[in-house]
Design a protein that fits this description.
Layout: H1 10-33, E1 45-52, E2 57-64, E3 70-79, E4 84-89, E5 98-99, E6 104-110, H2 115-118, E7 126-135, E8 140-148
Antiparallel strand pairs: 1-2, 2-6, 3-4, 3-5, 3-7, 7-8
């Protein structure tokens, strides 16, 4: 006597396998192209700025271009050789240092109060604004922008 085998037909199994593969592929595509916004979050900021030698002020606008909140942790003005000219450590708890998606804020750094720095701000001098920021998962990132005094 032969036992009756139970199971699904090979044709049905092949159809199910194709459907599962197509479904997984569609989910991966959506994840990597941002079609599933809850899953594919990214962080990023943009920095624009200017410096004027007569006022010794560096003005900048920092905008969160990502899809999740970021916390600004520091702003550093550097020479093109990488030497720090002016720095500001930002308090993460301060409300102005937390940027939601699409939010932008203006920041000003005053070099006139520090004589050693004040003398570096000459006309037609190029600097790098370097901003560090953190995300909720604890990762730290950097964004930078080159500026030239007018």
């Amino acid at each position: 006597m032969t036992a009756k085998r139970k199971g699904i037909e090979p044709f049905i199994a092949a159809i199910l396998l194709v459907l599962v593969c197509v479904g997984v592929g569609a989910m991966l595509y959506g994840f990597f192209t941002g079609l599933l916004p809850g899953m594919a979050q990214y962080s990023g900021i943009s920095v624009t700025g200017s410096a004027t030698p007569n006022t010794k002020m560096v003005a900048m606008t920092i905008k969160n271009t990502g899809s999740r909140n970021v916390t600004l942790t520091s702003i550093d003005i550097q020479t093109m050789g990488g030497s720090s000219v002016l720095s500001a450590a930002l308090t993460p708890a301060a409300p102005n240092n937390n940027l939601g998606p699409g939010v932008s804020r203006g920041y000003y750094l005053d070099a006139s109060t520090t004589p050693s720095v004040s003398s570096l701000f000459g006309p037609a001098t190029t600097y790098m604004i370097k901003v560090s920021y953190a995300t909720a998962d604890g990762n730290t990132y950097y964004a930078s922008q080159k500026i030239t005094t007018s």
